[in-house]
Amino acid sequence: MSSGSEKGGPMPGIAEQFHQNTVYSRKKPFAGSRPSRQAEPFKEYPNSKRLKLEPPDLPKGSLWQALKNRRSRREFIKEPITKEQLALLLWACQGVTSKISGYLLRTAPSAGALYPVETYLVINRVQGIDPGIYHWNIQAQALELLKQGDFSREIESAALNQDMCRNGSVVFVFSAIFARSTFKYSDRGLRYIYMDAGHICQNLYLACEDMNLGCCGIGAFFDDEVNDLFGLDSREESAIYLAAVGKY
Questions:
Q1: Does the structural domain 13-19+72-196+225-230+237-248 have CATH classification 3.90.550.10?
Q2: 169 contacts 76 by C-beta, under 8 angstroms
Q3: First vs last Cα of the chain: how many Å apart?
Q4: What is the reported pLDDT for 225?
Q5: Per-domain residue ranges for the chain?
Q6: What separation in angstroms does the CA of 193 have from each of 115, 166, 188?
Q7: What is the CA radius of gyration of the chain?
């Protein structure tokens, strides 16, 4: 499966090394390094003067309630969401809000407006859309069908058997085309890519909360199995973040 577009080549230097050294795979044990002890959960300056702030009265409005109520929800009922709901979620993730000097500015920020993150979907249950694997074409505002069929068990298995991937209505798979950022920012571009993915998924969380849908971001998955499922080469483009969405 190939997009037919030029991706710019793999990352240089330590960025590539870091990415490959943090891969999960059934083919080899993960041999990452850890500190000698866990850090304290909070930081404070006990000798500093403190100015106490009272808990704020939240303004009326859906954004504030979504922030207050946001949770990672992992238990889904096997019911479909609507095509309109999916369109809203995709817009929340990376909807185009302005066009300036050739850049398509979006709902989520991106370092240098380079937008290295692509959005793929495993659709399990969405009204009016056949189950399958899709790519979100932002310029065309269209879903591109890559593979038709039920892939709920494949994505569940690739995500370390987390059943929310099978029970959810849709699984968002965010990939990175690394050279979009590293061509400009070199190795440091890898940091910006992960920041971008976090911005996008937080938008997804808040949109789901406002629509009474559940969402759970997923960082634990077998990289090679997810990449193989979507036809990604793992060096020029690789999955970096998943999120299961559904009714609860």
A1: no
A2: yes
A3: 34
A4: 98
A5: 13-19+72-196+225-230+237-248
A6: 8, 27, 9
A7: 19
